[in-house]
Structure formats: structure tokens, C-alpha cells
Write a structure and sequence with these properties.
- By secondary structure, the protein is an alpha+beta fold.
- The chain folds into two domains: 4-280, Endonuclease/exonuclease/phosphatase (Deoxyribonuclease I, Chain A), CATH 3.60.10.10; 293-367, Immunoglobulin-like (Sandwich), CATH 2.60.40.3080.
- 20% of the residues lie in helices and 31% in strands.
- The chain has a six-stranded mixed beta sheet with strand order 3-4-2-1-12-11, covered by helices on one side. The protein has a six-stranded mixed beta sheet with strand order 5-6-7-8-10-9.
- A hairpin with a 6-residue loop joins strand 13 and strand 14 (306-310).
- 41% of the residues are buried.
Length: 372
């Protein structure tokens, strides 16, 4: 079953310096041909012609959108547009179609222009994505590049800008599949400003219909950095609760080792940010009529040594259990209508079980043992 591979990547002033474009183009193309992703969400694209040439030269049938706005540049006719850091969305046309983009929050009654680096609004992408049953599903993407720096004013601009973005998504798209990715310019566990993350309201909102989950947060908690010479992970991914069951548990990966193998002088020739990949398997919602994640019976929860699964629909044949850090801790097969899944010795905490078969579902459960 093919997964949808999505890469989040800050290309650090891509195409800005004419004398470096050939080497930059060659290295970026080499990496993309190795990654063979379905979607690339890019930040800091400067030269539009360079992006066009890149998309035309990589293996596969790709198309792209580039934001018609940037800091101090409200349109391509603005004096500052050519030199502005722009957002881009590259997609494989046989898996993604009917793609359109617009600046998100541009018509806000708040202070979005100021908070988002003087006009570098999030880029809101509407698209249809082919699922594993060859049906097309509506998915929304938000590509962002937040205000940089760790001074108090910059931190508050990020906080306020991100909060308005979240509130707007909650109100306008409360039941949609959404992937928010880009350069957040702050970590999700401990802020570069000190204290809680500027996006704490986003990553901790786990109640009601506006639930979000960050598949890259565990990487940050493991001490992984997404930028050269900097201890924080700032190139994060956030997904809406409607997208959680499609996420391939444990697939979030920072690709430093890979890109430095392909391009040994990567940080000098390409970027100081490393690409980050997440993967998804979109399951057609009518593949098994009447079966949804919330209807799958998995108990007890909290668990101690085992889980009971009601598999009367015969929907699932295998399972994987992942830790809070997205490491696989157990795998097995499912053969009966009611299956007992033995759990390995694990510490108390939140875990995830991924059930696969004719449908794929991810459910969260808790291990809670007395005496810990």
C-alpha cells in the first residue's frame, strides 16, 4: 500500500544568488529525486524562475504553486516581491489534483499582517488527494513561515499570529483533514523565548472537535534538531484530528543523515534547515461501511498487560504499537474476531496502536500500572 509522502523543507533563500543557482539547483534536484515525495511544502523560495526550472527537471510529473505574496509584498507586482521569501507547494499530479492556494488571514480584522512578518501570511492550499482505494479525498494544507528571532516582541507576534490561525481554522474548517507544516521559528516543547512554546495552544488542544496532533513533537522531545547549529526543532508538522487515522505512526523523520550522504556539503550548498518527512495512508471512508475509529472497541483503557480488540468486522489483520516517541515496541497479527493483544513491559504513559488490513486506524491508549 503506497503512502503519501509529504516533505517540509526550508530551502534558505532558494535562487537568491545568481552565481550559486546552478549548484543549488543540482543539489536540490538530487535530493528530491532520492526522496521521491508526493508533496513538498517549501519555505524561503526567492527566485520564481529557479523554482519553475527545478520542478520541470525532477523525476516524475510534478506541478507547483508559489505564493503571490511575501513580507512587504502584497502581490507579484510589488517592488519587494522578487526578493521576498516565498512559500511554495510542489505536488505529484497523479496523486494530487484540483490544487488552489490563497493567503490565509489576509482579510483578517486582527493584526495578522504584522504578526506574520509584515505580510508573509500562511499559504492555504486546497487539494484532492488520491486514497488507497483510488478515490479522491479533500485535504487542506497550510504552509507557513513564522516570524523569526527570540526577542519578546517577535515571540508575541508568533504567539498572536498562530493563535489567530488556529481560531480561524477551528471556525471555518472544524471537520476537515488539515496538515499544517512549515518553519514555525519556535520549538513545540520549550520555546526559544524560554518557557512554554509560542504554539502551546495548538499542540495541547486535545479536547472537543478542535483536536490537533503534532507527529514531529516526539522528535523534538528526543533532542533532535531540524536546523544546523541550533538546538531546537522548528520545522514542525501539525495535523487535525480528522487526519490522525491516516498518519503512519512513527513515520516522522528529520532527514539530516540522508541529505548529507547525497550532498556532503549540504549546509553550504543547499540550506541550514533539514527536510522533514511525514507519511500518510488515506483510507476510503466507505471501504468498510459503518466502521470508524471511534467505533472500534479496544479495551481496557487504561491498560496494564493486555488489550482486547473487537474485530468482528474482520477489518484488521495486523497491529503495531508505538511509544510516545513513535518507536515501534510491538507488532503482531490479528486472526480472530475478538483478539487479545499482549503488551510488552512498558512504562506508564500514552501509546498508539495502528491497526491495518482492509482499513487503517490509529488509536491512542494509556498504560497505567500500580506501583510505578
Amino acid at each position: 500500500m503506497d503512502s503519501l509522502k509529504v516533505v517540509n523543507w526550508n530551502l534558505e533563500f532558494f535562487g537568491d544568488i545568481a552565481s550559486q543557482r546552478a549548484k543549488e539547483m543540482k543539489g536540490t534536484r538530487t535530493i528530491m529525486n532520492h526522496l521521491n515525495a508526493d508533496i513538498y511544502a517549501l519555505e524561503e523560495v526567492v527566485n520564481v524562475d529557479s523554482l519553475h526550472s527545478l520542478v520541470q527537471s525532477i523525476n516524475g510529473n510534478y506541478q507547483y504553486l508559489i505564493s503571490p505574496f511575501g513580507s512587504f509584498a502584497s502581490s507579484p507586482s510589488s517592488n519587494d516581491y522578487a526578493s521576498a521569501q516565498k512559500l511554495a507547494f510542489i505536488y505529484r499530479s497523479d496523486k494530487v489534483r484540483n490544487v488552489s492556494g490563497r493567503p490565509f488571514l489576509k482579510n483578517s480584522v486582527g493584526n495578522a499582517y504584522y504578526n506574520w512578518s509584515s505580510g508573509r501570511y500562511p499559504y492555504f492550499i486546497s487539494a484532492e488527494v488520491k486514497d488507497n482505494s483510488n478515490h479522491w479525498q479533500q485535504v487542506y494544507f497550510v504552509v507557513l513561515h513564522a516570524k523569526a528571532k527570540s526577542d519578546n516582541k517577535s515571540c508575541m507576534r508568533r504567539y498572536d499570529g498562530g493563535l489567530e490561525m488556529k481560531d480561524s481554522l477551528d471556525k471555518q474548517y472544524p471537520n476537515e483533514k488539515i496538515i499544517i507544516l512549515g518553519d514555525y521559528n519556535d520549538d513545540f516543547d520549550i520555546s526559544i523565548c524560554g518557557g512554554p512554546s509560542n504554539y502551546e495552544y495548538l499542540v495541547s488542544d486535545s479536547f472537543g472537535s478542535q483536536y490537533y496532533y503534532s507527529p514531529t513533537l516526539p522528535l523534538s522531545r528526543m533532542g533532535i534538531s531540524s536546523i544546523d547549529g541550533y538546538p531546537g526543532f522548528i520545522d514542525h508538522v501539525v495535523i487535525s484530528n480528522e487526519m490522525i487515522n491516516d498518519y503512519v505512526a512513527g513515520s516522522a523523520k528529520m532527514l539530516q543523515n540522508e541529505v548529507e550522504q547525497w550532498i556532503p556539503n549540504y549546509t553550504n550548498e543547499i540550506s541550514d534547515h533539514y527536510p522533514v518527512m511525514t507519511q500518510y495512508i488515506l483510507t476510503h471512508p466507505t471501504a468498510i461501511p459503518g466502521i470508524a475509529a471511534q467505533e472500534i472497541s479496544l479495551y481496557p483503557n487504561p491498560a496494564t498487560n493486555y488489550l482486547q480488540l473487537d474485530n468482528s468486522s474482520k477489518a484488521f489483520t495486523h497491529y503495531e504499537i508505538c511509544s510516545p516517541y513513535q518507536q515501534k515496541v510491538a507488532v503482531g497479527t490479528i486472526t480472530a474476531s475478538h483478539t487479545t493483544i499482549s503488551l510488552p513491559p512498558l512504562a506508564n504513559g500514552i501509546y498508539y496502536i495502528r491497526l491495518t488490513g482492509s482499513q487503517t486506524i490509529i488509536k491512542e491508549f494509556i498504560i497505567q500500572k500500580n506501583g510505578y
